[in-house]
Amino acid sequence: MRSKILASAPAAVAVLVLAMVFLAVPTTRVENANAYFQPTNIRSSGLAGTKTLALTFDDGPSAFTAELLDILAENNIKATFFVLGTRARHHDVLIARMVREGHVVANHSYNHAQLGRRYAASPELLIEQIGRTDALISAHAGNGQGYYFRAPYGVWRRVHAEVLNADPVLKKYVGPVYWDIGGETSFDDEGEVRASADWDCWSRDWAPDMCGKGYMREIARKRGGIVLMHDIRERTLHMIKAMLPVLVAEGYRFVTLDEVRSLDQFRTPSGEDVPVADAGTPSSNVLMAR
Fold first, then answer.
1. Residue 142: predicted pLDDT
2. Helices 65-74 and 92-100: crossing angle, nearest 10°?
């Protein structure tokens, strides 16, 4: 028996060595390994349960954005602004202020086009939608911020990623970045609002406190996430002004998308042979770094 054990020892050592070598070898290169744009929306933020919120504001800048920046500054909160090129080109001073105050300026297309079949058939139109806004953002983004894209209406096609990842400039974007909170309005069995989307609230002519109640309830359930709002309606300002002090008092932490560690897996790595994860297979290590 002892001789059999001794005889099997070298084999066991060999297996162990092979296993260690296997673990040390880099993973196989995947298709579009060094691309930022993903074939589907990036839906896993990894912030649920962390009491961490990433506020994102779409469709601006607008006449209300300056006051929103004031409110964020009063609460010492940084956010991410997904701007439209058609608006950004008229608000150069606001874009510069966002960057100066530590916010992230991100790309939401040029004129909020629904990037469907027409843009799949005409790639040059897709590149124009994102490229024109990129030129406006890049003129200010000198603080080392990352580049992020959110598709209008959340509409996206796999072929868009292929086109944009072939562009030497636009492939720098992480996206399309989706959201966890603020995407829809819903009610419980008693008819009480349990989740809100600000654009839908205002179409229903709700007061800011009614809309804010839905946001606060969804935040309380999920305890973290990427929050979708819009900085183009005055009622959103009233709502966020009431919400932020309460959330701060409850211990929530606020971050920009640059600080959301789950997005790191979609960034172009420094080494050309290191693969980037596909949005359909998120990393298990997606929680915020404390």
1. 62
2. 10
| 285 CB neighbour count, 10 Å cutoff | 11
Look-up of token digits 């959103």: 236
**Residue 165, pLDDT score:** 94
Question: What is the rounded CA–CA span in Å between residue 290 and residue 50?
Answer: 9
pTM over 0.70: yes
**From the centroid of its chain, how far is CA 142?**
20
Structural domain contains residue 98: yes
Domain-embedded: residue 65: yes
Q: Do 276 and 39 meet the contact criterion of CB atoms below 8 Å apart?
A: no
Query: Are 180 and 47 within 8 A, CB to CB?
Result: yes
**Amino acid letter, 100:** R
Could you give the 3-state DSSP secondary structure of residue 178? coil
Q: Is the separation of the CB atoms in 111 and 86 below 8 Å?
A: yes
Buried b (16+ CB within 10 A) or exposed e, 120-158: eeebeebbbbbbbbbebbeebbeeebbbbbbbbeeebbe
Strands (E), 108-254: 175-177, 186-187, 193-195, 225-230, 253-254
The partner residues of 228 in beta bridges, in order of sequence, read 56
Residues of the chain with pLDDT under 50: 1-35, 270-277, 281-290
Q: Give the whole-angstrom CA distance, residue 6 versus residue 100.
A: 69
Distance from C-alpha of 134 to C-alpha of 149, rounded to nearest angstrom: 10
CB 164 within 8 A of CB 171: yes
- Which pLDDT score, from 0 to 100, does residue 144 have? 78
State the CATH number of the domain containing residue 107: 3.20.20.370
pLDDT at position 186 is 97
Distance, in Å, from the CA atom of 164 to the CA atom of 142, rounded to the nearest integer, reads: 22
| Domain enclosing residue 254, as ranges | 37-266
Residue 201: inside a domain, yes or no?
Answer: yes
Number of compact structural domains in the chain = 1
For residue 269, what pLDDT is reported? 60
